[in-house]
Amino acid sequence: MAPSDRFVAETSFHVRYAETDAMQIVHHASYIVYFEEGRSHYARQRGSDYASFERSGYYLTVSEVQARYIKPIQYDQRVIVRCWIEEMKSRTLTFAYEIVDASTQSVCVTGTTKHICITHDGRVTKIPEAWRAWMD
Fold first, then answer.
1. What digits encode the pLDDT tens for the residues 12-44?
2. What is the C-alpha to C-alpha distance for residues 96 and 86, in angstroms, rounded to an integer?
3. Residue from 129, 126, 134, 92 nearest 112 by CA
4. How many CB atoms lie within 10 A of CB 7?
């Protein structure tokens, strides 16, 4: 369940046919793309976008992905992706996600992605202060 003690971004969309398998159920790999959409929306809601982050000399590379599939989602179903920061350390950032059916609000998928901040030349570095402020 999404926390009530921190900022949670929500975005919604209809599942596209290309994201489903032969049974018209969302393919498990598509949820990772949904997580990405959730965190991109999170960044925009917090006043920055990932493209600006990259232009400033950094990347947040994915180091771990975890997903728990609770209930299948089907073609054309409207879903809501909720995203929040679960944990931030000096060089790593963990986003958490909930994907819910928009009509019933039932949770279909939960997950996390862990990221490590690197410079464009691949050196591990501290997360910039502007992004660290999101946790305050």
1. 999 999 999 999 999 999 999 999 999 999 999
2. 6
3. 92
4. 13
CB 87 within 8 A of CB 94: yes
Indicate whether 135 pLDDT > 80. no
Report H helices in 1-136. Answer: 30-45, 50-55, 129-132
**Cα–Cα distance measured from residue 69 to residue 134, given in angstroms and rounded to the nearest whole number:** 28
Round to whole Å and give the CA distance between 42 and 44. 6
Give residue 131's pLDDT: 79
Q: What is the distance, to the nearest Å, from the Cα of residue 86 to the centroid of all Cα atoms in its chain? A: 11
Which residues is 96 bridged to in the sheet? 84, 112
The candidate with the shortest Cα–Cα distance to 50, out of 63, 64, 69, 36, is 36
Q: Is 17 helix (H, G, I), strand (E, B) or coil?
A: helix
Q: Please give the CATH number for the structural domain made up of 9-135.
A: 3.10.129.10
What pTM was computed for the model? 0.93
